[in-house]
Amino acid sequence: MVNDLKDILIDNGISPSYHRLKIYEYLAQNKTHPTADMIYEEVIKQIPTLSKTTIYNTLKTLSEKGLVSSITIEDNEVRYDADMSFHGHFKCLDCGILYDIELDQMSIDKRLSISRKIQGHHITERQVYFKGICKKCHK
Amino acid sequence: MVNDLKDILIDNGISPSYHRLKIYEYLAQNKTHPTADMIYEEVIKQIPTLSKTTIYNTLKTLSEKGLVSSITIEDNEVRYDADMSFHGHFKCLDCGILYDIELDQMSIDKRLSISRKIQGHHITERQVYFKGICKKCHK
DNA sequence: TATGACATGTGTAATGATTACACTTTTGTA
DNA sequence: TACAAAAGTGTAATCATTACACATGTCATA
User: Can you say whether the dihedral through the CA atoms of A48, A51, A52, A58 is positive or negative?
Assistant: First the structure.
């Protein structure tokens, strides 16, 4: 598993330092869409000298190379996701959990996920998100 | 025009103070998706004593009452839009302009815009956005 | 018209995620 | 072993937003 991730880093032109590998590994194994701070709090358990700047630097690198997407829904936090398949998100305004939303179920046209252009503009990134109260909190 | 907007405020349970009316008027007449700061810089020309806190308070009120939507695409800025019809946005990473995107053209299923529930969660807000380089900047 | 209570607006200070930057450590190669 | 480049660290700065205490405006009633 870890070796797979290491190869993915190498294949994408990122030298697989221990820090980068652990951060990427955490994101690949936790589908919780953590913030930079959440990642820091967890990964520091394995790397006690870890700096928060390293978290930001690494996330920026992973993001630029297309291995991780940054999800901006609220202006006061960015969430990170190692699942690069096209899907949407639902954020519960009560508990804060970010759920994945399969957009196929919404019959979203394939064009939304694959088109490189829209109204003449060149697309590099796309997001679909919802906010509200989740199933659990609604009771 | 101004009277129409005044009525809209009243109909939505917002007492139409001069400040609120001017801020709402600015948003209704400018389709530029301004930030709080941009609104402040413009409206202060008409109300020299205007405070930025009033901008934030008013935007919060308008947003809560459903007269304005706040668009979060980048984590360091929130844009505001008085056009409450369902549409997407495209942000140019070069010039920063936010374009409206008609989602009908993308054959987005009507369900995306009207459904109240998704995977059991109760939806109160939805956004579709794209990032990239716009037509003008791409040359 | 005066009074008083509540709504609205102001200005400054605090917050907090992110970034800038200078310095330190690690890595890989000769 | 030495050295240059890459990677990581820690502190300080940034900046949009929010908190909060005080000031002003509004409006109903006496």
Answer: negative
